[in-house]
Amino acid sequence: MSASISSEFQSTSTLQCRIHRGCHEIGGNCVELKAQGKRILLDLGLPLSDDSTPLIPPYLDLLNSDESLLGIFISHPHPDHFGLLQFISKPEEGHSTIPVYIGQEGLGILQNSQLFTRNAGLDDLNLKPFQPGAVFEVGPFTITPYRIDHSAHDSYCFLIEVAGKRLFYSGDIRAHGRSAHYFRDLVLNPPADIDVLICEGTRVGHVEDFRYPTEDSVTEAMAEEFKHTPGLGLAWCSAQNIDRLVSIYNACRITDRTFVIDVYTAEVLRAVSRDDIPLPGRPGVRVYLPRSQRRRIKQEEAYSTSNKYHSFRVYPEQLRATPSKFVMLCRSSMFAELAEADGLSGATLITSLWSGYLKEEREAARLNDLRAMGVRQTHIHCSGHATVDELKQFIAAFPNSRIIPIHLDDREGFKELSVNVELKNDGEWWGV
Ligand SMILES: [Zn+2]
């Protein structure tokens, strides 16, 4: 560590904070807190933008060579909040392993996904999954997770207390999903005497292109679409967006269609303890094994993964026989096999994810091909993040706090939300 960095620590403030990434961009959240020579991190996220170099923020000692880093607290299982965990020290590297705290069901989603996605390295971590209601004493820090509504299941804000100083970190939040009650409870009964609120600002400065304000409005619009679709209903969303899977499932129930999920999605859902999710075995849920997942299971000889869904499976000939009785969860990699199976006549595709993703070259080309086959496409989506009005409600719950924005690109716009807003820069230490 250089002399100039050491001297920055000589502040008299009990609790020091440094945001490594997120002051100037959406994604890559990483907040370091330091007190009495000990440190914790809130999130360790992968930057979303390709031009973020270096990947590991400068000065962030992930090898923990002085063993001052006592824990990493992950707010929710989105890559821009946990994606750099693969770079922390491992036991075989001769350092003490840093405990990683993450909500139990959020962790379960990541673990159950590993066969099909690239969340590599989770198994080597010193994982400390927690349940709602947990409180942690870690060195001088007391950390209390607060459940919150977001497009990731099992999302949390964190309250950090050190010797009379209190900092509250929002993680990612919204107030219009299927867990909106957590947001309402928090703003009605917020933790008192917060000195600093670090608050996300994703949607500040972004033109509202969402015609659907809530998950329930997404369900209604999807049901309307399925009603007027003579063939197969196709819905494209993230398998890890549990709220959205429920929205699609509800639309299926309204229109008396069976919801066909894939094996990967079924595995994700197995980690979630909610009554409203489309688990195989619940009414109107079937499981399809797409080619790519079949290949993966074969490669890894993970036959037990697909075998457990054997009695719920549905096959292309069944879909072809009565397409109007089904809605199939899909992604662009499945378009070609659906076309080969002759299952797309009269079909409608509902895209239900961030529209920027659909503009990427490969996805746009596949969508074009699908439309060329006569498949209707419509976009029905609502945001995973708080609207500006919701952010105002959140901030108003902490009237005496300094407000530091994170996870945003419109810093000046965020300043309009409160007179208590202070802008910080990535990499600078400041006192709480
Ligand atoms: Zn998120």
Instruction: Name the helicity range.
Output: 25-40%
What do the pLDDT scores average to? 93
- What's the story with the biggest beta sheet? 7 strands, mixed
CATH class of the largest domain: Alpha Beta
Count of individual beta strands: 19
Strand residue percentage: 15-25%
Beginning-to-end CA distance, first to last residue: 23 Å
Low-confidence stretches: 1-10
The general outline is: globular
Radius of gyration: 23 Å
Structural class call reads: alpha/beta
Bound molecules: zinc ion
How many domains, in number, for the residues?
2
In order across it, which strands form the biggest sheet?
6-5-4-3-2-1-19
Specify the CATH architecture of the largest domain: 4-Layer Sandwich
Give a description of the structure.
The chain is an alpha/beta fold. It folds into two domains: 16-207 and 385-431, 4-Layer Sandwich (Metallo-beta-lactamase, Chain A), CATH 3.60.15; 215-379, Metallo-hydrolase/oxidoreductase (Rossmann fold, 3-Layer(aba) Sandwich), CATH 3.40.50.10710. It is 28% helix and 22% strand. The chain has helices at residues 3-8, 79-82, 104-113, 180-188, 215-227, 242-255, 263-270, 291-299, 303-307, 316-321, 335-340, 355-358, 361-372, 388-396, 411-415; strands at 16-21, 30-35, 38-42, 69-73, 99-103, 126-130, 136-138, 141-148, 155-162, 165-169, 196-200, 233-236, 258-262, 285-288, 326-329, 348-351, 376-379, 402-406, 429-431. The strands form three sheets. A seven-stranded mixed β-sheet has the order 6-5-4-3-2-1-19. It has a six-stranded mixed β-sheet with strand order 7-8-9-10-11-18. A six-stranded parallel β-sheet has the order 14-13-15-12-16-17, sandwiched between helices. α5 runs parallel beside α6 (242-255). Residues 1-10 have low confidence and may be disordered. Residues 76, 78, 81, 150, 152, 172 line the site of zinc ion.
